[in-house]
Amino acid sequence: MEAAAGGAEPAGGCAGAPEEPVVSLADVLAENEELEKEARAVLGGSDHERCSYSQGAVKRQALYACSTCTPPGEEPAGICLACSYECHGTHKLFELYTKRNFRCDCGNSKFKNLQCKLFPEKGKVNSGNKYNHNFYGLYCVCERPYPDPEDEIPDEMIQCIVCEDWFHGRHLGTVPPESGDFHEMVCQTCMNSCAFLWAYTSQLAVPTVTKVKSLEDEKIVLNVKESEEQKREIKKESGDHPGKIKEEEQVEQFNEPSTSSGSKCPETVLKSDEPVCKLRELQTMQSLKKDTATFWPSNWRSKLCTCKDCLKMYSELDVQFLIDECDTVLAYENKGTSDQETDRRDPLMDTLNSMNRVQQVELICEYNDLKTELTEYLRRFADDGTVVKREDIQQFFEEFQSRKRRRTNRMQYYCS
């Protein structure tokens, strides 16, 4: 459904006025709904009114760091969504997106001059929390902020699922696949600490290309191919293992359908009595370790071995979350969108369908005025790096209504 500002003359309008572009309110509403959906996914169902401290170490939640209260040189700290609004609304915040198993620090001993307004009875520290340079607004191996005012190279930031740091795509030692081709990434450092993952790469990881020059060389890439010497060395080391499974059989085994679904996480099944270790079988096959990040499809976690020895290894490396499908960022985002979805019709669309074209055009004009003024109003908060609070929005609409009444009272129409 489209309403053209020039297709019907507004009440009191003048003949001969220049035509304005056709505007589809349905498209505008659809675009706003998509933006709201993305926002809900980023927040992952986090409560914007109640501090999350009482929930303990939340599996995943939207987190922020306050540069005003805990600047560089002070101990790092993280705060929940509700505290970012209520306790740090006028402060400079770093958006951390999501961290696993974190408990809100707001108002504890790391904050010298601030007490949490939502949950003041907090312990002094949260010993289970993990921190990195992200809490000071720094990311990647280059230790730069994001967005970086001095970086003129357009680049995508990708989060490692193990250390949860964010990396520039060009600093991962390999050219990342297209963003739609993979769902998770493990950085170089974490691949070294979780070396067992290299055994899975040939069967599960998304293929990449590696750079042949410096990290700053953005254009020259080369397909990863083992040299004949490397192949002979690998064959010599692996030998002919009597219990070796054929590669074709192994591929079939690792390409079984995943049990994970869109927004509902399956229960993690720990098969401690599994007779065959998938990892040990894969380690008998050739695999080439590279100093690069690796990229993985959506269902790869369900194919990791869960035998007794592997479960012990995950525990020792503190990466038990790798066999938990509900730990994924995709599950986190799906929770945010599913919690907010409703089956009822949009009341604004119902109202719009009941209007004639003149009323539709008038509504579009009012909407455009509101959108323009609200954008300008919110830009001030973005420039200052402060959080928009409920009372700020209330104040905006009160002033908007006042300006609208003044415009209406002064309005006179003269048509020839």
From TrEMBL:
Record flagged with keyword Zinc-finger = yes
- Region (Disordered) location: 227-267
| Molecular functions (GO terms) | ubiquitin protein ligase activity; zinc ion binding
Q: Which InterPro entries match?
A: UBR7, UBR7-like_UBR-box, Znf_FYVE_PHD, Znf_RING/FYVE/PHD, Znf_UBR
Question: Does the keyword field hold Zinc?
Answer: yes
All copies of the UBR-type domain together span: 49-121
Which of UniProt's keywords are assigned here?
Metal-binding, Zinc, Zinc-finger
Query: Mind telling me what this protein is named?
Result: Ubiquitin protein ligase E3 component n-recognin 7
Q: Where is the composition biased (Polar residues)?
A: 252-263
Record's GO cellular component terms: cytoplasm
Composition bias type Basic and acidic residues, residue spans = 227-248
Q: Where are the zinc fingers (UBR-type)?
A: 49-121
